[in-house]
Amino acid sequence: MYADRKIFMLLTNTETQVTIRRRLGACISAFLLCALLGFCVYPSSAFADVRQSDVIAGLSVEARDLSASSCPNIVAEYAYVVDDSGNVYFERGADTQTHIASITKVMTALIALEYGDVNTTTITVSETAATIGESSASLQAGDTMNLQTALMAMMLPSGNDAAQAIAESMGDSVKQQLQEQGDTSVPDNAYDAFVYAMNKKAQELGMNNSLFANPHGLDIDQHDAEMYCSAHDVAIMVSKVMKNDTFRSIVSMDGATIQVNRGGTTVDIPLESTDILIGSYDGACGVKTGFTEKAGQCFAGAVQRDGKTLYAVVLNSNSEQQRFTDATTLDDWVFNNLISYTLAHSPESTTYSSEDGTATEVPVVAYVSHSGWIDKTFKATFSDPNAAVDVFALDGNVSQSFEFDTVSGDVVPGQKVGTARFYQHNNEIASVDIVAAEYCVAPNFFEGIGIWWDRLIRGFSGSQTSAESTVVNTTPLIYGNNATLTNSN
Fold first, then answer.
1. Over the range 224-259, which residues count as b (16 or more CB within 10 Å of their CB) and which as e?
2. 467: left (phi over 0), alpha (psi -120 to 50) or beta
3. Which residues of 392-408 are buried (b: 16+ CB within 10 A; e: fewer)?
4. pLDDT digits (tens, 9 = 90+) for 60-78
5. pTM of whole model > 0.85?
């Protein structure tokens, strides 16, 4: 750019400068016209958007009456975000059947790991596998390797050759094991038996919108067949296989060099992961990319932060880069809306003395009635005054309910006197014991007689015969215009 500017400054001839300006103007006009035509030709779905039908924590954007700024803005036609505890944060067409391209290899890996041994199972590359085309690990016919090496060749560069070789090499063993389990429907052909196992596993996992036709995900020419999956189903199989340490360690690599046996000689093959988020995005730890013309740009990604693993599945995005942008947009949106919600919020505190004599300041969450007295209550706190629970802000504000036990005898600090429960969107998210925060002595014999007569008289007049328990604890808003809590990440 600096050189171009220097040349332009050397052009002192006025006519030359005018000509250059005219040509630049024409180029700019042409560019703007093309951009305008492109905007008209391509549908709005090709651009990042927020849809009223997008589902956030079980309810649509429309039902929650959320603003667009509160929601993730993505291109992908289908998406699903869930954590390792099963909490679902986002859905877009999540159960729609669609092609998933090389994400199919996740199921291939799941079957291979279930039916083979990563160290002793031998994978041999056939001519068919070596010449299958598209994404490749540069394997050649006759190459042999153990299963772990083959999985690396399949998952890192998305090697169709490795996927085909795994299915062909393991098919007979898979068939035998299935038959030993009493399955009489398994096909005789080894390759078909492996694909059969993929579909059987999908059914076992509850992947109700899935059908696999091959181990690699190619869907054109000789590989054109009925096959489909959904964003929801992808998340199911990804979260399942990521529990396997071998698989997780493989997909968390940004690259590796494998060794295969080729004609009696050990050959090194360098591999590079297609997952560009590994090493560049906070917490990224896998798992698989995919692309065909039918599937569009796809990605199933895993991110781990602060002990929580998040799985974001995006299918049919519009570019190789956008699929990653969609996934990170979803990840960031979830993490930015996760709040560590402290259960105790009280304007009052008291000094609490534990059994070992240690004195600490604790929040007063309630005044609990002592049934032995007519007008006496005692201070109470939570068994864990610092207890907190992770909540998703957009799922709504937190509410609470307190249930108090009937207390009649002497009360000592730490004694359980009730239970507090906390809810978000009508679902219980936490419960904690309510404990006494101070001593409260029960009436003695003579005091008890006097209280008995007092209550008898009050009963005739309709007066109060014992104090009422009162709740001091509050539940600050985490969502809405008056929200007082913010993200803690």
1. eeebbbbbbbbbbbbbbbbeeebbbebbbbeebebe
2. beta
3. bbbbbbbebebebeebe
4. 999 999 999 999 999 999 9
5. no
